Amino acid sequence: MLTTTAINDFKNFIDNIIAYAKVTVNGVTEKRVIHRRERLKDGRVAVYVSITPQTSSAVTVQRVQLYNKNNELWADKAVNIPLNNVQEGVLYRFVFDFTEKEV
């Protein structure tokens, strides 16, 4: 069985390996910084990406991706998040959980 130290090492790995995000809005993909990282009370690791398109028209967020320090795709999520005016944005959250199971 994994020790608490081993599980924490995996969580630290997540914190350290994710370098940046890419977000696709209306078919255009742009690089974004990671807004925040945190350990949730239940032990999961969360990574947040702030998405605030600078436009005066309605747009749709279509994809959110995380990349590692080697510029390789690490996590990918197709989404359909409509934003209807220039003052709207979204804080998108990836959550990672670690569990050990005997098989």
Distance between the termini: 12 Å
**Beta-strand proportion:** over 45%
Principal-axes shape call: elongated
- The portion of residues assigned to helices is 10-25%
Helix/sheet category: mainly beta
H/E element string? HEEEEEEE
* Unreliably modeled segments: none
Backbone CA Rg:
16 Å
**Order of strands across the main sheet:** 2-1-5-6
Let me know the number of strands: 7
- Most strands sheet: 4 strands, antiparallel
- What is the helix tally? 1
| Assembly state of the chains shown | single chain
Mean pLDDT across all amino acids: 92
Folded structure, characterized:
With 103 residues, the chain is mainly beta. The protein has one helix spanning 4-17; strands spanning 18-25, 28-32, 36-39, 45-51, 59-68, 73-83, 90-96. The strands form two sheets. Strands 2-1-5-6 form a four-stranded antiparallel β-sheet. A three-stranded antiparallel β-sheet has the order 3-4-7, with helices on one face. Strand 5 (59-68) and strand 6 (73-83) form a beta hairpin. The longest helix has 14 residues, at 4-17. The protein is elongated and about 55 Å long. 16% of the residues are buried. The mean pLDDT is 92.
